[in-house]
């Protein structure tokens, strides 16, 4: 069925492509945060364990919203680890960092999503796609606050 939502196919594709990168970064940060939740140790265990749980729970909801927006634009949302790995700009961890290094890496991951989301704003703004702009604005607010809270542990 032809899609006629007031946004051209070219613009919908550009937006979906950028949202796919936001989705991939969000998924990779979700995995990293959940991993850290399970494996954090040390005197900050309790507070970080709880903070990481709040963060990965929020990311899980965001991942669904981002994927559903891609689908609403008429495109397939990436959904495999291979696809996410190709699209993401967040590195997977291959070692087991200490608690404060986990915090630092999560702060950097949230900052990376901020940069990726800002890039996605351009085609959404150009197409006057307010729904995507709203979604990305919410993500910017959440990731900026999360990065700040994580950085506060390191000061």
From TrEMBL:
Entry's CDD domains? Answer: DPS
Q: Which Pfam families match?
A: Ferritin
**TM stretches of this protein:** none
**Which superkingdom does the taxonomy of this entry point to?**
Bacteria
Identify the residues that the record assigns to the Ferritin/DPS domain, covering every copy.
17-155
What the record says about family reads: Belongs to the Dps family.
PANTHER family the record matches:
DNA PROTECTION DURING STARVATION PROTEIN (PTHR42932:SF3), GENERAL STRESS PROTEIN 20U (PTHR42932)
Can you say what this protein is called?
Answer: DNA starvation/stationary phase protection protein
Natural source organism: Fodinibius salsisoli
């Amino acid at each position: 069925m032809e899609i006629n939502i007031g946004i051209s196919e070219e613009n919908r594709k550009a937006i979906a492509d950028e949202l796919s990168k936001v989705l991939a970064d969000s998924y990779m940060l979700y995995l990293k945060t959940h991993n850290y939740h399970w494996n954090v140790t040390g005197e900050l265990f309790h507070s970080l364990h709880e903070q990481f749980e709040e963060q990965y729970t929020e990311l899980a909801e965001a991942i669904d919203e981002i994927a559903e927006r891609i689908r609403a634009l008429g495109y397939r949302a990436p959904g495999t680890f291979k696809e996410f790995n190709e699209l993401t700009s967040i590195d997977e961890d291959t070692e087991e960092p200490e608690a404060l290094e986990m915090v630092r890496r999560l702060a950097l991951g949230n900052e990376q999503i901020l940069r990726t989301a800002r890039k996605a704003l351009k085609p959404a703004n150009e197409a006057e796609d307010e729904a995507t702009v709203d979604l990305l604005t919410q993500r910017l607010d959440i990731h900026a606050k999360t990065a700040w809270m994580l950085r506060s542990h390191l000061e």
